[in-house]
Amino acid sequence: MPWHRGVTILLVEDNPDHADLTLRALREGNLLNELFWVKNGEEALDFLHRRGPYGNGASAPRPGLVLLDIKLPKVDGLEVLRRIKGDQELRSIPVVMLTTSEEDHEVTESYKTGANSFVSKPVRFSEFVEKIKALKLYWVVTNRLPDG
Amino acid sequence: MFRPRLNLLGKFALLSFFCILALSLALGFVSSSLLTGNMLAWEWQGTAELVRYQVRAYSLERLFTEGELRGNPQRYRESLSSLLSLPEVVRVKVWDREGGVIWSDDARLIGRRFPQNRELQEALAGGVSVQLKDLGKSEHVFERERFAKLAEVYVPILSETQPREVIGILEVYKRPVRLFGMIQRTQTVIWTASLAGGLLLYLSLFWIIRIAYRTQLRLEGRLKEQAAELQQRNATLESFIQTLSHDLKASVVATHGLVGMLLETSGDRLDAEGSQLLHRLQKNAEYQARLFTDLLDLSRVGSEPFTLETVEVSWLLGEVVEASRAELGASAPRVTVEAPLPTLYGDPRALREIFRHLVTNAIKFNGQRPDPQIRIAAIDRGAWVEFSVQDNGIGIHPDYHAKIFEPFHRLSEVEADGTGVGLTIVKRLVERTGGRVSVESTPHGGATFCFTLPKVWPVKAEAHA
Are A21 and B257 an interchain contact pair (Cβ–Cβ within 8 Å)? Predict the structure, then answer.
């Protein structure tokens, strides 16, 4: 399938176990593209703006999808989302919010700010894989469409 | 909420001012008039006795009896000189029993009759009577005197042989300068004393009340501070619980996932016991995750404010029933919703939560009956609506009716999912609107949960601690 390649995913997740699980879920869902993992909101913004340790453009390609945990140290997930959606260059990058608990106001706030989708991490790993798979189909395909 | 108590102090100040003023005036008036009356009576009595003493001493009865004196003014003056020399006496008049003037300083009056004179009539009946006269300008002969008052004292003279018989009247004109001076001084003292006393009473009362009022203000302030502090602590605790539950849940979710991965990658290399243990570990992690989810839900119920809008209950309920069925996937019970259901002005999310927990409960505890049924109804109670959710499941023993609303209280005999916060959440939400929730049930007889909600929810719904 041609759209497997070329789509870079940025995972913003402070919990290494959750990062590992997400990585595996992506792999299980046949979606192992180029994946970058950053541990907090500040790093995520550095990555996206290619500054600080990511000053070299080659080490920080523009991602095709951001998986963003909602509770993050330093800069909160919602704040990162707000910055992405407020940036002329970055706003077109689809952002999927990840959350452990499904708080109504967080979901509402995320969608208001411009999140494209929302995945609550289920207890069962298999369920998570299913959700990630469902995401893949939607986001990667639609993301590729304009390129033909 | 907190009305300034200055009102109270002001009210007290005004009310007590008028009360004490009235009291002082009444006291002053009563005591001064009593004293004045007594002083006057005493004075007239003294005058009368003095006159009678003079009459006896100088045998003046003859003024009335002996005809030879009549028509001889000089003799009268001589006879009455002892009376005229009494202190403050300025004039003496002699009356006969028929109200005729026998003798007077004013010669024009002699021989004239004034039987209508009231004081004279009283004196003729045997009592001393007095007429106080304020001297008019024209007759104000004593310009330099302070007291332009004249007292006409009518003294009945009794017969020596028949003590009850009035033989005539001696009228003494007095200018009681000393008496009225004394009366005025006494009144001044009385009025000053009662007004000063009233003022003193008022001031001391006001002082005491002000101390009490200030103490009250201070205590209220302290109470408010404490309430705010308590609220702050509660909020801190709530947010602590939320953060803690969230992190613990994240950790346990990871554990579950990692064990799952272990099973997936190396499951075939484990023996039966090893993989069973891993499955048990996973099950435990799952239970913990649910526990923390419930804890999060529970703490959120108290801290999230209501967002009010118009809610069509029948529509909302249809959604809830569908979702519960899908979630539990149980043998679908027959749900009867009795029309009509009301339209409320409330928080749809909270209402959905209430119904979701009750319907889920009813489905869960159906006891694997072949014909599970749920009946939902609403009764209009004026400003309130009473809802009921009835099932025909396993029921609850009356001993547990109070306990089921406590958090994490699961009836041990029941093997069901969940950790047991559903009914606690229902109770908290209902009580935040001001409503009440109750249960009627017998073992194996099904259960009916009733709760009341206002048709218009309060805007400021305080969370119950």
Answer: yes
Q: How far is B263 from chain A (nearest CA, A)?
A: 11
Each residue's pLDDT tens digit, B101-137: 888 877 788 888 887 888 888 888 888 888 887 765 5
Strand partners, B172: B92, B153
Which residues, including other chains, have CB under 8 Å from residue B115's CB and lie 6 or more apart? B98, B99, B121
- Whether the pLDDT of residue B464 is over 50: the answer is no
Chain centroid to Cα B292, Å, comes to 49
* Token duo for residue A41: 């909101």
Q: Does A71 touch chain B (CB under 8 A)?
A: yes
CA distance A51 to chain B (A): 30
pLDDT value at B222 more than 70: yes
**C-alpha span between B344 and B310 (Å, rounded):** 6
Peptide linkage before B73 cis (omega within 30 of 0): no
B290 to A121: CB separation less than 8 angstroms, yes or no: no
* Chain A residues lying within 8 Å of B249, measured CB to CB: 100-101
Residue in the block written with tokens 């505890």: B365
Predicted complex ipTM: 0.72
Interface test with B, best of A21, A100, A127 (most B CBs within 10 A): A100
Q: List chain A residues with CB under 8 Å of B246.
A: 71, 100-101
pLDDT tens sequence across B267-316: 888 888 988 899 999 888 888 888 888 888 888 887 778 888 999 998 89
Provide φ and ψ at B177, rounded to 5°. -60, -45
At how many degrees (to 10) do helices B422-432 and B272-303 cross?
Answer: 10
C-alpha–C-alpha distance, residues A40 and A13, integer Å: 7
Q: Prior bond to B340 cis, omega within 30? A: yes
